[in-house]
């Protein structure tokens, strides 16, 4: 459903003129459950949003989305956005100054001659354990299960015939950008999760050689393997602000089948949702970090120096500008929490006291804030799928308590929210041991739309203040629109012969200069309570492993 932004009469007229003149930027993000579009003005203020719900499917043993659904969903989100623009501003959206696309990170999209060779395999698949382990050993850096190179190598190990034909690999963001512009490029943040990068600008040459040796050995043994070097299969790497092409006539018709949208908008490099999360929270400088909470949950911490060891809990990626980042990615986020909220909503309906989703979450979070700091001895796991950091190949949502635990609504809900952050804490503990310091953690995603509880509890989990901006719920689509606006800034600076502001400076001085942040810091008692919960959580992980083994 489209959302509208409340503006005073002067701002409303200014926005109307900007839209009519095509001086606006569009960000589109393909999330796990929603495709969102966000339109912003030259000051990066949100003007309107649109969305379309979609869900992954388990097909032939792989979690996937049909690319046809990606395209139709993008069209629906854009159409929803146009409805909001027309109803709010009384003008039609026909021109854009710039646009950008982001999506769920990594995964596997292999092509030959423009045709998809295998169903899109998303980040959620955990079948790549053997390949990830072998590449981690060969490369000397952690290669997570969901990275594109792990999917490709696993397909080789499994003898999948299609790998002989592969001539191009990309991510979902890269694919949509290709359809809109004709350019096979990728932002460095997303690219760094396809294959390790070096210097923030190129795929690591030594690791390219190592992988090519592995594929050559496979071919010599008669196994299916790509004929080309892996570097020739991957998209060109671009950093934020770089020229990533323009919206083509075909792309404009694809995005807006009505034919009203004009071609020619500048396109910024497509990015993953981790990169847009960093932008949406202004967390691109060293000693800053952000947490994005949705179907999955992950933390990004910008590094001052390289880590001392290889850790399976930590992915080494980059910001959209190419600076090194330690990422803690958990497959399971707030979905189980949302399911429980849905149950309580149904109960309210059954009592004749039906409430909207926001009201249900508000009531449940209020109860959680009044609960015991350790959730009264209760325990909740949010594992809808496997969770590598927790050592689980498969998971089951699970709630447990002892006979003497305090079973109240508040404690139950606090346990559920703590459960969202549990695995994240296990990963962040590794960074703490490495001496990585986080001064402030910035958060975004729908979980933080309801003020208070989630923010406070996250502060207890990360042992740092947690800041949330007014744009937190809009999240990645707004962050992508900001990157599109930054591309426009870079083009204008180049045309005028001026230096291009660094991405961090642009965000601080232009985008976030007047943005108010809500900052929450957990009390010492809340921190101690969370640590007690986490100790219980970690000790009982074998219970969830047993549930996964026996509940089929």
TrEMBL record:
It comes from the Bacteria. Keywords: Carbohydrate metabolism, Kinase, Transferase, Xylose metabolism. The keyword Transferase applies. Residues 290-486 form the Carbohydrate kinase FGGY C-terminal domain. GO terms for biological process: D-xylose metabolic process. The keyword Kinase applies. SUPFAM superfamilies: Actin-like ATPase domain. GO terms for molecular function: kinase activity. Belongs to the FGGY kinase family. This is Sugar (Pentulose or hexulose) kinase. It comes from Zhihengliuella flava. The lineage of its organism: Bacteria, Bacillati, Actinomycetota, Actinomycetes, Micrococcales.
